[in-house]
């Protein structure tokens, strides 16, 4: 049992040091939409914190996880040096380590089942932005920036070759994006030249039911201040 708790204490220290140092680097670096800083912090700098945390975790186990029992001296005998007493596990320390491990295990299980990619499936979202009458499409694809937010992450939508469309006399923009997480918080934003960024919420279940193809088109939230309408449909083959 001592060996198991010692290993767990060291692993918890390594995990805390690794993630803590990586999070500190990301926090000091500021916003990171493309994820490059976060990946560098986790894979390049995080291991340094992991080594330090591993040493600290083992030291904490030796320092606080083991309690030394003082052996009483025989009556009438005064030894020159007190004999070393036997050691035992610290009950509070053991309970703390086990609770932390159980909490992390539950958190990992909960996070893993939220990813459709890990449940043998995927979700593809197709969005269509209908511009108001008289509004023209941008000349260049680079002038169209579409971003989808789900939970606390962001994904840049891709414009297909036929991204230019129309609905009667109204111009439209079509785009697709792969959704990665099961969450109730989804939103999409559109940025065009000389037009402030427009944002709509996407009303979808946390884990949409599978569909044989794309679902019917649905209208997003209320039209934006620029009178642009957002429509979306979902494919969730699993």
UniProtKB/TrEMBL annotation:
Keywords: Membrane, Transmembrane, Transmembrane helix. Residues 201-238 are annotated as: Disordered. Residues 228-238 have a biased composition (Basic and acidic residues). The keyword Membrane applies. The chain crosses the membrane at residues 38-62, 89-109. This is Uncharacterized protein. It comes from Bradyrhizobium zhengyangense.
């Amino acid at each position: 049992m001592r060996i198991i708790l010692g290993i767990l204490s060291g692993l918890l220290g390594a995990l805390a040091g690794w993630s803590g140092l990586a999070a500190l680097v990301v926090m000091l670096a500021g916003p990171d939409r493309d994820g490059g800083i976060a990946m560098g912090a986790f894979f390049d700098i995080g291991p340094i914190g992991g080594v330090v945390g591993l040493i600290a975790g083992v030291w904490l186990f030796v320092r606080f996880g083991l309690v030394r029992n003082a052996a009483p001296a025989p009556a009438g005998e005064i030894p020159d040096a007190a004999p070393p007493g036997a050691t035992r596990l610290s009950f509070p320390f053991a309970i703390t380590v086990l609770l932390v491990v159980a909490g992390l295990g539950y958190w990992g299980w909960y996070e893993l089942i939220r990813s459709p990619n890990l449940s043998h499936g995927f979700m593809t979202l197709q969005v269509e932005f209908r511009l108001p009458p008289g509004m023209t499409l941008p000349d260049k694809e680079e002038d169209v920036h579409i971003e989808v937010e789900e939970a606390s992450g962001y994904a840049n939508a891709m414009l297909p070759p036929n991204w230019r469309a129309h609905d009667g006399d109204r111009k439209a923009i079509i785009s697709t994006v792969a959704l990665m997480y099961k969450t109730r918080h989804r939103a999409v934003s559109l940025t065009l030249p000389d037009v402030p960024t427009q944002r709509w919420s996407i009303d979808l279940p946390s884990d949409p039911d599978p569909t044989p193809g794309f679902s019917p088109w649905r209208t997003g939230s209320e039209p934006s201040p620029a009178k642009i309408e957002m429509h979306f449909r979902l494919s969730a083959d699993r």
